[in-house]
Amino acid sequence: MALSSQRQPGYSRRARYSLFAAYVAAVACAVLGLLLLVVSVIDPTGFGAVRGVATDATAPVSAGGRGIVRWVGSAADEIGAYFWAGSKNKALSAEVAASRPKLIEAEALARDNLRLKRMLKLIEKHPDVVATARVVSSSASSTRRYAILTAGRSEGLRSGQPVRSSEGLIGRIVETGILTSRVMMIVDPASVVPVRRLTDGMPAIATGRGDGGVDIRPLSAGRNPFALKDIFVTSGVGGIYEPGIPVAMAVRVDTEGAIGRPFADPDRLDFALIQTIFVAPDVAPPAPGPAPDPADAQ
Cystine design at 208: which of 172, 187, 199, 204 (Cβ 3.0–4.6 Å)? Predict the structure, then answer.
């Protein structure tokens, strides 16, 4: 009788050995587990030592497996972030665009708050302030440089009163209305301000150039004594402007003097202080004493 072409696994020696090895391993594991259970009940200290050895032996494998799991998780996150990058970028761009006007508004409010604080300190320091007004316009394209204030005769303003900001001198009032006033700024060619150098008090004259700067000329003839970054303040000579108001800083030096940049930039003026006209004290010669008595000479 011919043998069947489909042989059963039981007839294979390799299959029988594999099945026998599986049985032996299962029985060995069961016996080992039973022994460990008996040891954990009878000798918990020894079982702890055995458990520590097992933990030490399997720690590298656990660490490697945990690293693989983390790598797989991070790879999945990276893939997800790649596919969702477009939508997230669009959402973030929209959020930035919506926040930009608020940031600009907050920065403008912070700057206005800082300027108002400086003005408040200046008002507290100078009790001769007549009024505080907003600068509504200034002529920047013409050679004549004027500014308009939102205060006039109703606020006590008069022609000739000096106008300044927290940064420095602006100019003086030349025309007044009931509610507004016209200020000739120090950068106007018709403006002449007596100044002195802050470091040594050297007198000079600051004249407007009409282009946003001032010409500073020394009163003494000879070599130009000015240098770059020299600071000039009002001297108080001749009245109108009280001494010590910042006027300009030298940004260029020529053979005749210096060209200064005003501290009160006309393009950034928001508020102005109007002060009373400064009257320079008269320096009278000392009164002659009484004639000596001839008897005292004897």
Answer: 187
